[in-house]
UniProtKB/TrEMBL annotation, chain A:
This is Acyl carrier protein. Residues 1-76 form the Carrier domain. It comes from the Bacteria. InterPro entries: ACP-like_sf, PP-bd_ACP. It comes from Chitinophaga rupis. Coiled coil: none annotated. Signal peptide: none annotated.
């Protein structure tokens, strides 16, 4: 499974939403499922899955699927 | 006895700030702005922390109406069920454009049918005990409850007229409401925001307005810790408060040391919605020497420990007037100042109280109270009578033990939907047998040992 697909699955599981709903435009607090609780859970899952450490500034920047992808790319993860 | 609204309106320094637009409002700018008939009745307010929601709340506080404060994120089915049961005269809910049986007026829905039931004159506010599950069970609070509890809190918190206080907790939740009432009465600027600590915008507002305090449930402190709060400096911050469940000893120490080293104060507090909000607080100077304590009773409050059961019993003017689970419950208000907290406690030689256990079976998850017997009932119902047992582990997660071959992730999904809590709040364990006591009941104490041993 490539990293893009893996990211899609992690998002869907962390927010408890169908994978099809995970689009680049989806943003924090735009749906009830993406609240602070699922956000922190998402970060923890991303760190475990990609074996990276996400720092404070990055957590605050990760306010949409697109921005999460940008952050992962900075960590050398190959995301489309 | 002055009304809560009168005490708020009497604060000459009070300004409500809308960080979305940067606009400032006096309390008089935010009242008499909605068309509310001058009579008694019930209003349902589905409010977030936006300036528009606070405006609706202030309008109704300055009216004879009884106000039910509800989460705007409640599932629409739950909203409709509650409205059919209680038949409110007004609904404030910006998320809907129409409500059947109601006429849309300016920012409100008015019931097309005149209400045909009376409400006890002492009931001013109704708060939900669960928040998210749409339970029809409300805590009945009077003007006197709200005012007395706010005054007791103002007595120990360093609230000042030049404060800038963000509403970091939902105001439909008792702790969040107390932040609003106390700072409206004795503070300065109240920033009406639903932004939270994992958003960049929250920290931009923090700097822009110079926030002087942060209020949080244990989960907020976990998030603050996760985002590296203690690695930075916040010159404007004077104090922090925590309530809504037990904070882990590690975090209590971390934030206690961080604040003490910078001449700031950290208040660990104890309360319940049934006591309007607050019953006790730990003075910041005792935070490290009395670790794990809930502290001392608030002004005008008293604790007793029941000699037979060790139950902590609170007496004070902020104790609620009973529950309402339907219209009949709105006819009465019990003036009984004694509250059986359901927590067991000890008192040390210097008068500090410590919670040692719980008599009622519930767990607090992300600040939300979850009744464990109800969870078992939900599961047994959904699983066609399969054997399950539930406990809460340190207000961190809910542990479900089951026999047989149930799908763990399906159980998590079901509980997440029913309780409106994130799946990470649940852990599922398959066991060969559910431990029983000699008289054949589930041995929750033994389960608790397993739960603690399992902890990572």
């Amino acid at each position: 499974m490539n990293a893009t697909q893996q990211l899609q699955d992690i998002f869907a599981a962390a927010l408890s939403i169908p994978a099809a709903q995970v689009t680049n435009e989806l943003s924090y607090q735009s749906i009830p499922e993406w609240d602070s609780v699922s956000h922190i859970y998402l970060i923890t899952e991303l760190e475990a899955a990609f074996n990276i450490s996400i720092d404070t500034e990055e957590v605050l920047e990760m306010s949409s699927v697109e921005k999460v992808k940008e952050t992962l790319r900075k960590h050398q993860i190959a995301i489309d | 006895m002055m009304r809560l609204y009168d005490l708020i309106a009497a604060n000459p320094q009070l300004v409500y700030v809308d960080p979305a637009t940067g606009q400032h409002f006096r309390v008089t700018d935010l009242t008499h702005t909605l068309d509310i008939e001058p009579r008694r009745g019930l209003a349902f307010l589905y409010i977030d922390n936006s300036i528009a929601a606070i405006e609706a709340l202030l309008n109704f506080l300055d009216s004879p109406f009884t106000i039910a404060l509800l989460s705007p994120k409640l599932n629409i089915t739950y909203k409709q069920q509650l409205e059919q049961l209680y038949r409110p005269c007004y609904i404030y809910d910006p998320s809907r454009t129409t409500v059947e049986g109601f006429e849309a007026t300016t920012r409100l829905f008015r019931n097309s049918t005149q209400s045909d039931y009376s409400i006890h004159p002492d009931i001013k506010v109704l708060l939900s005990t669960s928040g998210t599950t749409g339970s029809p069970k409300f805590v009945k609070l009077s003007e006197d409850n709200l005012v007395q509890n706010a005054l007791s809190i103002i007595d120990y918190l360093p609230i000042q007229h030049h404060d800038v206080t963000p509403l970091t907790l939902p105001v439909f939740y008792s702790y969040g409401l107390s932040v609003l009432t106390t700072n409206s009465m004795a503070g300065g600027q109240v920033v009406c925001t639903s932004r939270d600590v994992v958003q960049k915008e929250f920290w931009e507002d923090f700097t822009r307005y110079g926030y002087t305090s942060i209020a949080g449930v244990p989960y907020v402190y976990e998030m603050l810790h996760r985002i590296g709060f203690c690695k930075k400096e916040y010159a404007s911050l004077r104090y922090m408060t925590q309530a809504g469940g037990r904070l882990s000893p590690v975090l209590a120490k971390t934030f206690g040391e961080y604040t003490a080293a910078r001449d700031k104060q950290f208040f660990i507090m104890y309360g319940q919605t049934e006591a309007t909000a607050r019953m006790a607080y730990l003075p910041p100077e005792a935070l490290l020497s009395k670790a794990g304590s809930i502290g001392l009773p608030i002004k005008n409050g008293r604790f007793d420990i029941s000699p037979d059961t060790q139950e902590l019993v609170y007496t004070g003017p902020n104790v609620f007037g009973g529950y309402a689970t339907g219209l009949a419950g709105l006819q009465t208000f019990d003036h009984n100042p004694v509250l059986h907290t359901g927590d067991m406690a000890e008192k040390d030689a210097e008068g500090y109280y410590y919670i040692t256990g719980r008599m009622k079976r519930f767990v607090k998850l992300f600040g939300t109270r979850v009744n464990l017997d109800e969870v078992e009932a939900i599961l047994k119902n959904a699983l066609n009578g399969g054997t399950v047992a539930c406990i809460g582990v340190e207000d961190k997660y809910l542990l479900v033990q089951h026999l047989g071959t149930l799908d763990g992730s399906a159980i998590k999904q079901l509980l997440s939907e029913k309780l409106q809590l994130h799946v990470s709040a649940f852990r599922i364990q398959q066991v060969d047998e559910i431990l029983l006591t000699p008289n054949g009941k589930v041995d929750y104490t033994a389960m608790q040992q397993v739960g603690l041993a399992e902890k990572v």
